[in-house]
Amino acid sequence: MRQIGSKLYGLVTLSLFLAGVTLTLQATTYSFRVKHAHVFGGCEGKLIISDIEIRYEADLRDHSRIWTYPHIKKIERKGLRKLIVHTYEDQALQFGRDKSFEFEFLDGVVSDEVFNFAIVRVGRPNQRVGPPPIPPGGRYEIAAKHLHTFGGCEGTLKITDTHIEYVTPHKKDARLWKYLDIKRIEQESPYRLSIYTYEDQALQFGRDKVFHFELKESLEPAVVEFIRARLRR
Fold first, then answer.
1. Residue 155 · residue 169 · CB < 8 Å
2. How far, CA to CA in Å, does 76 sit from each of 35, 147, 187?
3. 96-141 pLDDT per residue, tens
4. How far apart are CA 159 and CA 227, in angstroms?
5. Between the CA of residue 205 and those of 148, 149, 188, 209, what are the distances in Å?
6. Alpha helix ranges (H) inside the chain
7. Predicted TM-score (pTM) above 0.70
8. What domains can be seen in the chain, in order of their start residue?
């Protein structure tokens, strides 16, 4: 009897432990019925705010969107009924200005709890303490938007020991610069990087071409020094 009781106690303890782990692993999610405002009219759907993304499941399927937090520029609250998600998407009819999505809550409110839950996950705040670790091979990857005269295109800056590469689905905007091809870099803020190259601009009397990037995460001083050290070689 003592042995059976001991086994039973062990099974109960294990069950309680697994139940606790399951509850811990369950992701926090908020879901609201909302209206997405268009220039004319709007559409309704469900706005889902989770640990990893904000998702809009529209009744009209073509209007649905999914944004992971690094791809959200900022989140704004207007009163208790409106939430605005500012993204890096271009608005073609507004000279490439970043696109914003305004949602009116039809049930529930944008409480402090919900708003704070979302804004602390947006990619821009830099939570890292100390310099970033140098990854294998000395390679850094930073999500970025290459700014054009009007608008821009999104992609990834890959910083290696031998070159800097901009990878983007827009093939004509993809670039790879060896450090010998780069004149200098300038950092206006932790979220801005300009790469000055020896490439000529045909329409500007052969002036050196500059590539301006808006970064979706903070560019650490250690990474900037990593680049400059290679420019000095």
1. yes
2. 16, 23, 27
3. 567 889 999 999 899 999 999 998 888 655 444 455 555 555 689 9
4. 8
5. 19, 17, 26, 11
6. 2-25, 112-119, 221-231
7. no
8. 29-119 (2.30.29.30), 140-231 (2.30.29.30)
